[in-house]
Amino acid sequence: MAANASRPTPEDDSIEFADEASHPTLPPASAWRVLAVDDDQDFQRSLALAFKNIRILGRPVELVQAFSVSEAARLLARDRDYAVILADVVMGSARDGLKLVKGIRGMLGLTTPRIVLLTGQPNFAPIDQAMEDYDLTDYCLKSDLATRGLKNILTGALRAYAQLTTIATAHRGLERILEASNQMAGARSIAEVARTLLDGLGALLQIPIDGMIAIQAGEVGIPGVDAATEARIVGAAGCFAETRLQPLNTIPHESARRLLNDALSGRVSIDRKDCQVLYFPRQHAMAEYAVYLATPRPLDAQEQELLRVFAANAAKGFGNVALISRLDQTAFTDALLNIPNRSALLRELGRLRGDRNGSGYRLVLLDVDNYGGLNDAFGVALGDRVLTALVARLQQRFAPPTLIARIAGDVFAILGKHNAVGTAHAAAVFEEPLAVGEDSYHLSACTTEIALDARDGDSADLLSAAWGSLRAAKARGPGSAQHYDPEVERRTGERFALISRLGKALRDEVLFLVFQPQVDLRTGAVTGAEALLRWPTDDGFIPPNTFIPLAEQSSHIDAIGALVTRHTCRALQQLAQAGLGKLCVSMNVSARQFDANTFSARLAEACAEAGVSPDQVGLEVTETAVMQSVEAVIDTLHAHRRRGGSVAIDDFGTGMSSLSYLLQLPIDHLKIDQSFVSRLESDPRSRTLARMIIDLGHTIGASLIAEGVETDAQADWLRSNGCETAQGWRFARPMPLPEFIDFCRAARSAD
Ligand code: C2E
Ligand code: MG
Ligand code: MG
User: Fold this and answer.
1) Which atom in ligand 1 lies closest to the alpha carbon of residue 673?
2) Does the global pTM surpass 0.85?
3) Does residue 722 register a pLDDT over 90?
């Protein structure tokens, strides 16, 4: 069965191997292919005769003949799949045979075909060296073919070839397994591992892939796959592609279905002529898997072995992915409510904003009103059940792909398309009461909404902008809704910046007190002073009406309270040293300063340190401050009174005090707010109110101090209407202590 071959071409010293060759593949099961290269027509003819009907190692032999080195080169460039190459040493030139061998091993890089050199003239070529250099299997005289027998020589060469190809195939197989394992190790989902596994199997066995992978997650389940006892197809390719994600028992391929079920229930791999079913046990893959692969031919022992190695690696791939998704689940799921958490929300925000800037999507935040009160009143367990019921309600109202996440105790995020998600949609969730067990609860929530493309910055910035907006909604009271407003965010940002600057200023002890004299309206004598805080900065003074409320929102009010108390006492000490020991200095106290219950102790300590008596210290509290925590304030003020100190209600008439509360307070002075004083001349209503305040003060036994007195007319009116004391620019502006001391001395000497 000699193949047709053309006549030899004229001799050429260089051999050209075209680079169009296919790469070596598995040895053909049908016939050994032998290439004979010889320019001796008679010899070739006798070879063709000898190959007829020859069988070696159980297979027929196919002879391909080339009559020159260049013809051989052309044949080899087209097809490298030869088991043995018989080459004549001396052809056109004396070294043609060796040139050919060099080309095969060197340029073509063919290492598996066995080469047998033939020669009619012994001792012509330096054969010993060539045998070593070019991996020659044999070297024989053409005359040997008769004596030793062609068949014997070929059998030896073919056996060597078979061994080499076995090793090479195993090597390539292992390389492919390694490659597939690396890919599987990088896979992040079961679908990805499944796809890589099927591709890897196809590459390993060099067959087209018709296969599918069934998973049995079991009762526990694994993330991304339903916890179910029913097996399901997680990956499929080729003629089974349609079965992906279907329950195993509903797929139409009867025999494959049966075999997959057999493998899963019997926990075994199955080897058939036309298919392979691999079983992966739970201990390696964290779920049970079975892979069905149709094979166009039975697999040989070597392929079976490779398949086993492959399966062991694939199981690790499945195990890895299950582990990763389990870690993923822990990191991105709220443990109590089993819904996405803040990290999951941020991840999804990032994904949507990466995609067309997130336009068309909206984030809603929702903060349950008075959830803390509910917890305190009914216990944490009920609080948890209420949240669970709320999540169920939200899930009913916002179906996937809208995402519902819990981002703090009682704060939820809803992320979805802008036509499905908004504050109005969120508010509608609370229209009906929530049923928890036998009871039902009428909840409300503050909400805010922000478009995903509303601002620059990353997802965390967007979320914190939404938080800011939610805080603004909460400040407006239960059930409030607030749409994100960049202007509000800018102001909030400025507020935060100022709060942190205030912290630094306090640490650097930059703030100081000034003193505004209080004057007896009848005698003109200085009776005392109000201590007012000043914060100097490079851009001038920041007014206390700006920084005190910020300090009250942060913890800085505590440091401010401590500073004012200490400095007030030191001022009293210096006044005494200046011979002004009778004067009283009052300081302003915020409601929050009473919270910690350390106020009295701190004042006593500061007085003792400065060696002054508490009865020289006046406290000014506003009506609103008192109303915020009545009990704590009343107790502290009473204690101060018992030590001889005085108490004034500041800005009186501007708050909304209930008189019954007011009468419980130990009050020495009512301070008429400057808003009435400034309108005394122009507004009869203000005069009426001022008169009422003076009457009320006298009724409860308090004296009156008018604030913000700027003109003689105001002072005259106040004096003639019974107001005892005044404070304001008409008499003096707030001033540093040394100036205040000078002011008092000057007033005294004027008497
Ligand atoms: P306040 O306690 O009612 O203090 C009186 C405010 O009126 C002071 O403003 C004072 O400078 C201003 N004032 C005095 N006389 C006149 C006048 O004739 N005309 C006008 N237009 N204003 C006058 P200031 O110092 O800016 O303080 C504002 C507020 O900040 C204070 O109101 C007080 O509530 C708060 N504050 C000031 N210092 C402290 C402090 O040390 N601690 C606390 N908690 N609050 C303070
Ligand atoms: Mg005051
Ligand atoms: Mg005031």
Assistant:
1) 3
2) no
3) yes
